[in-house]
Amino acid sequence: MGRLLGGIEAGGTKFVCVTSSEPGVIASRKVIPTTTPEETLGQAITFFREQGPVEALGVASFGPLVLDRASPDYGRVAATPKPGWTGADLSGALARALGCPVALDTDVNGAGLAEARLGAGRGLDVVVYITVGTGLGGGLIVDGKPVQGLTHPEMGHLRVRRHPDDLDFKGVCPFHGDCLEGLISGPAAQARLGYPLNDAPLDHPVWSMIAYYLGEFCASLCLIASPQQIILGGGVMSNLAIFPAIRAACASALNGYVQSDAIGSETFITPPGLGDRAGALGALLLAEDMLSR
Amino acid sequence: MGRLLGGIEAGGTKFVCVTSSEPGVIASRKVIPTTTPEETLGQAITFFREQGPVEALGVASFGPLVLDRASPDYGRVAATPKPGWTGADLSGALARALGCPVALDTDVNGAGLAEARLGAGRGLDVVVYITVGTGLGGGLIVDGKPVQGLTHPEMGHLRVRRHPDDLDFKGVCPFHGDCLEGLISGPAAQARLGYPLNDAPLDHPVWSMIAYYLGEFCASLCLIASPQQIILGGGVMSNLAIFPAIRAACASALNGYVQSDAIGSETFITPPGLGDRAGALGALLLAEDMLSR
Fold this sequence. Notes:
2 copies of one chain form a homodimer.
Chain A: E1 5-10, E2 14-20, E3 28-33, H1 37-51, E4 56-61, H2 90-98, E5 102-106, H3 107-117, E6 126-132, E7 136-142, E8 145-146, H4 180-184, H5 186-193, H6 205-225, E9 229-233, H7 243-254, E10 269-270, H8 278-292
Parallel strand pairs in A: 1-4, 4-5, 6-9, 9-10
Antiparallel strand pairs in A: 1-2, 2-3, 6-7, 7-8
Helix pairs in contact in A: 1-2, 3-8, 6-7
């Protein structure tokens, strides 16, 4: 038995709180609805006191987050449309109440960390994890650590070249219109269809367009960061039938320039390996890394 | 005095060979014209024997290179239009002749490593170094190490969205036509102008187009890797007058989404700090890192 660690996958609808004393193994788990910061954080604190004490806590959270350690607002939620959460002091409140160090990162970096170290990308040096759902986000994990420079990556807002048969749709991103998120997130697909993407048959042409843009995206990632694997998760990706078309679109965009047998293969662009446990396992890894630093 | 290290900046027209016993300080230097592998590598070996023995040699080379350690061709030059160099065993020949370990990386990763650790990006965790000249290449340096996953990045071949006033030019990249390299490298600019870019006045509209695409490129880099600094070097970038337009185009593409005062500032997108010494200094860092591993 190792030290007891805590993890929170902090989402907009629920907080998944877990403890663990063995890497990759969850010892206890509680799901708390996301209401107000006081109520939700209060219930999380009660859980960790009951199960604990924990030696460190990792939080993989919805955002935006202030992650610049030089900022007086470090550890807080930045301006968010979610009522009551703007300015909520996630890491400060938890650290004070539990008397332990708190490591905070974005939900996508947390899930990416878990997929890169314990899941589909296990054993690789450079992995990109993408989630396509209500939004489109991504984490770049190098040597088992999310890359974080100026802020954290915001890959979903990349502008890609439009498909020649898709020039009319304006996109739904309030900042960029037809960036990737604006073109193929769940809400973008719904705007294209007039009804939820979940209700579209699996052979509806909207899926071809999603696969095309994801293939272009993967090609861009390949050119900029040269990952050994790109893992695509999130609600939209539960349609596994589109993976072959994504791989083909990526290979077509690169047109033979990146010389590797991996391009176009089933091992290069893959679904996640950890299912819905990635976020909580990633939060535990954040806690583990904080103690080992 | 530390250990004596050797470095080669191996270019298509010349090999710059250096030795050093102190980080960042070049003790001896010899420039050898790039003719045949036998002749050029032979002269380099003679230089290092005269100045040495060196304990390790770093080579930052023109490419393409085989850098996959699992490949039987590791350390060789891959298919290149440069006569006689396809298959040349750079690292093997040098290691055998000098009896020391040889670290090999691309010229752009070498220069990027030096700029990130000793030059314009000194002290930062995540830096991108771009060179715009005959080609367009880039290196992503994280925690003082070039990121290398599947192969090495090939950022110059990113497809960006075309400027609305620039839809007619087809681009010159034999693989992708109008990828970034195909749109704004030196040869691309010459194809646009009908004469060399060097002969274009500094206020020629071609420079606005180059600045626009580089701004889009920097925005893409920012979204994918979130670097603290992007360093733009190479022959085309010797026109420093275009930096303000690049910064403005990057900020405009991001449209306020990435919340950082750095965006648009003079410290985010910068010229290099080491001038033409970056390649040789980077080669020495490759040697140093090999010994400290």
